[in-house]
TrEMBL record:
<feature type="domain" description="Helicase C-terminal">
    <location>
        <begin position="1"/>
        <end position="149"/>
    </location>
</feature>
<dbReference type="InterPro" id="IPR018973">
    <property type="entry name" value="MZB"/>
</dbReference>
<dbReference type="Pfam" id="PF22982">
    <property type="entry name" value="WHD_HRQ1"/>
</dbReference>
<dbReference type="Pfam" id="PF09369">
    <property type="entry name" value="MZB"/>
</dbReference>
<dbReference type="InterPro" id="IPR027417">
    <property type="entry name" value="P-loop_NTPase"/>
</dbReference>
<protein>
    <submittedName>
        <fullName>Dead box ATP-dependent RNA helicase</fullName>
    </submittedName>
</protein>
<dbReference type="InterPro" id="IPR001650">
    <property type="entry name" value="Helicase_C-like"/>
</dbReference>
<dbReference type="Pfam" id="PF00271">
    <property type="entry name" value="Helicase_C"/>
</dbReference>
<dbReference type="GO" id="GO:0036297">
    <property type="term" value="P:interstrand cross-link repair"/>
</dbReference>
<dbReference type="InterPro" id="IPR055227">
    <property type="entry name" value="HRQ1_WHD"/>
</dbReference>
Amino acid sequence: MMQHGLRCIAFCKTRKLCELVLCYTREILQETAPHLVDTICAYRAGYTAEDRRRIEHDFFNGSICGIAATNALELGIDVGHIDATLHLGFPGSIASLWQQAGRSGRRGNASLAIYVAFEGPLDQYFMKFPQKLFRGPIECCHVDARNRQVLEQHLAAAAFEHPLNLSDDEKYFGSGLESIIMALKNKGILSTDISRSATARIWSYIGLEKMPSSAISIRAIETERYKVIDIQKNELLEEIEESKAFFQVYEGANYMNQGKTYLVKELDVANRIAWCQRADLKYYTKTRDYTDVQVTGANFAYPARTTSLQLPRTTAQAQSCRVTTTWFGFRKIWKKSNQVFDTVELSLPNYTYETQAVWIQVPQTIKTAVETLNYSFRGGLHAAGHALLNVVPMYIVCNSSDLASECVNPYDSRNVPERILLYDPHPGGTGISAQVQHIFSELLTAALELLASCCCSGDTGCPNCVQNISCQEYNEVLHKDAAIMIIKGVIEEEESYFKSISELS
């Protein structure tokens, strides 16, 4: 597109893909159109505000002709005249796809949008049924306004503008307002006149920030971040959310910024600083890790539940959970061939956070049936979780980073819980799991159809059914046939359970 003089945006699903696309494009332009090499850049969350403003300005005035961007550039910013958009993989919703495509042709000019499908099941589904994409309805976007981490930040900003009152403001902020106000009081952010009654108290902002809203990121829910600094220039390159830091910056990691490669020389965990040095690396790195999910609610299989038609007819539970990630190494992978050529041991502190999960118990009889056929039950649970992840975006507006499943580490021989579990991989949770709970039965049916209709052979399935591009375990320990047995067995158990409840009532 750039070689033909078109100003374009290539929308990428992840930050790393954004950097790789920029890197590969520059390599091609260096050979075919070297005068264009400096007219392309990347735009994503994590960059400093100054860098983002500079890129926006340069793109608007025409000194930059191409941008590899995440959905950070999807809306809200006027970047001037755009001729074309590239969409690398389905962004997670039809609404997002149209929003991205709408960045071009803004001033009545002709425009072009090209959707490049990846191997994932949703992308391939739209390749087989394009009318579902081009004629499908725009999804309704649901936001979890009760997310406690968001509410705490929101209330601090609200109290700064106008003092809060429980009796008046609960209708706006929800029934948990009082507990959040008390949490902010204990943090020294809100204060009140204790001589008044509880309902009549006025809560005022007394925090240290002159304007609390300026300290809140609209791109991430977290407040703790790691700084990435260029050793030679002593220059801040970006800030990475704490939950993502150990996946991107660790000693020996290939860190990428604006298509340039850096070698991480030192990670100062105490001060949250990663020291990097420019290096011409022909490979990229990816961590080796495993994640444990501990549901902190009651762990029971088929709880008694009223048969009201207003409640979801599923035994799936949406509960709080504790997620702990352990890193034990990383791989070096050639950029050109994606072949792993080296593995390195790694020692990092575990990272733990509270979030939300949705899960359903797999009865012991199903496990016994799977193992009787010498199928891998662990592989079946792993594959079943992937299958559910792959169909969720057909029902809920989300992308691949909004949900995760329990993924089995091939070197971990511990017993895995007998359940299919999805969770919000962000501290505090995003509310997606709670939405999934209500449609869990539909997701099970859709996942079974996905697996049964895929013609691939072999236990490990393929990217069209149980393999998932976001799997941290490189899609190891997967068993497609075991997943089919597990999902089918859970569906039958659900139907039997609710049939018996109906007969009793």
